[in-house]
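for the writeup, i need someone to sanity check this before i put it in the appendix. the sequnce is what the collaborator sent (i think, or maybe the updated version? ugh). structure was predicted straight from it, no edits. if anything looks off just tell me and ill rerun, i have time this weekend
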Amino acid sequence: MELRPTPKHIDRSSRLIEFLLIALIPFVFIRPFWQAAGWLLMVILPLLYARLTVGRAQGYLLHLAYRSGIPVRGLLPHSVRRLDR
């Protein structure tokens, strides 16, 4: 008895919706006031986001922000005061 081959992409989630949402932010908020910047950011932001996240572990951008010194609220619970003793 031979099993039918399963496609390799069956469990892979599509990130197309994420990229579209990131592209729509400048389209909605910036383009009405500054046409050229809105169109330019519509192309650049999804490409930058893809470069920073594709192939990386989940939560990589939070890790990168924390290591860069950018304050990230809600990353640790308030009950944690110090991590080293």
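The mean pLDDT is 82. The chain has three helices and no strands.
thx in advance!!
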